C-alpha cells in the first residue's frame, strides 16, 4: 500500500472523527499499549512437546493442514513470523506441556520446574516478549475424567502438585520479565452422563484449589477458567461458571472468560462489568465458537466487538488481560494467528473510536433515539483508515498485504515440514 495513500486517508478519517469529538491519535496511542497474549498452541494444534499422543480433555483441533510446528525451534520461528506481522508488542502464553527437556531430560508434570522453561524465558527476553502460563491437565496418562476434582487421592495429588509447580514457574517468568505472568488454570473435569454427586466433586475441586493457592507469590497472578461442557464430558463440568465466579470473588483472584465457554446466546461482554466489581482483574480467551466451543479463528463479529467495546466502556483496559485461544488446524496456522490477533486489535480500535462522552450524555439525558443513531453511524465511520495508519506506523503490512508474507513463509518454511 502506498504510504501517501494511507496518510491521506488517515487525515480525512481524523477530521471526520474529530467532528464527533473523537481523537484518533489518542486512540492509536492507547492501542499501541495493549498487548495481546498470543496462545502458543495455535502453531501445533495443542500438541506440545512431550510426545503425549492425542489431544484429550474434551477439546479438539480439527483439520490436517500441512506445516504444523513439530519442534520448539519451529514453534518459536512461527511465533516470530506472526509477531512480525502484528502491530504493537505482544505476550506469549505457554502451556505446561511445552516444556523444553533438551538440556534437562524429560520429567513428569508433577516435577516441572522453572528450568524446564529456561530456554523459553531466554527466547522471550531476546524477542522482547513477556510470558504467561497455563497448567496442563489434559493429554496425559493421569488425565482421567477427573483431575483436581478426583476422589482418587493419588490422581488428585498428582495434579495438585502439577498446578503448584506451574504457579512457581509463572512466578519465575514474572520475576525475570519484571511483570507478573498470568497463570490460567483450566481443567476439563466433568462427566459424560448424569452425575449424582455433583456437589462432592466440586467440594474436592475447592479443596484442591485451596491447597494450590496457599503459597503466595509476588510475580504471578492466578486465574480460573470455566466451561459449559467438553466433548465426552457433556452432562457435568465441575469447574462451571458459577463455581469459579464464586471462588474467584472469595479469593480475590481472576476469572478467565473464554468466549466459547458459554451458552450460545449468552453475552460474554455483559459479564465484564459484574466481574470487575468483585474480582481484581479479568482474563479473556478470545475465540470464535461455531455451534459449539469449536475454537475457530477470531474474526471481527458482533461478539468480539461487544467485548472490546465493553472493556473500553468500563474503562478497564488496564484490568483486562486479552489472551487468544483458538486452534484451527484446517488452514495455514500462521495465517490463523495473524487473522485472529489483527481482528482482535481491529475490534479494540473500533471500541477506542467510540464517541463515549456524547453517548454517555445522551444516555444520562434519556435521549434513546440519539444514542442509537450515533451508535449506528459509528459503524460506518472510517475506522479502517485509522487501522491502516496503525499498521504503517508500526512498520507491519497494511491491509491484506500480510497474505503474501504468509504465502512466502509457507513456501519457504512450513510447506517443507512433513
Ligand atoms: C478449553 C479451554 C482452554 C484450552 C487451552 C489449550 O476449552 O478453552 O483454555 O483451550 O488451555
Ligand atoms: Zn480457553
CATH names the topology as TIM Barrel
* Beta-strand residue fraction: 5-15%
List the quaternary state of the chains. Answer: single chain
Q: How many separate helices?
A: 14
> What's the CATH H-level superfamily name?
Divalent-metal-dependent TIM barrel enzymes
Taking the sheet with the most strands, its summary is: 8 strands, parallel, barrel
The top-level CATH class is Alpha Beta
Radius of gyration: 22 Å
Provide the low-confidence segments as ranges.
none
| Structure classification | alpha/beta
Q: How many extended strands?
A: 12
Structure write-up:
By secondary structure, the chain is an alpha/beta fold. The chain has one domain: Alpha-Beta Barrel (TIM Barrel), CATH 3.20.20. The protein contains 14 helices and 12 strands. The protein has helices spanning 3-18, 24-32, 72-84, 118-126, 153-177, 198-213, 241-251, 271-278, 302-313, 333-352, 356-364, 368-379, 383-393, 402-412, and strands at residues 36-39, 91-95, 131-134, 181-185, 190-191, 220-225, 236-237, 254-258, 282-286, 288-290, 292-296, 320-324. The strands form 3 sheets. An 8-stranded parallel β-barrel has the order 1-2-3-4-6-8-9-12, surrounded by 4 helices. The protein has a two-stranded antiparallel ribbon with strand order 5-7. A two-stranded antiparallel sheet has the order 10-11. Strand 8 (254-258), helix 8 and strand 9 (282-286) form a beta-alpha-beta unit. The protein is globular, with a radius of gyration of 22 Å. Residues 186, 225, 258, 285, 325 line the site of zinc ion.
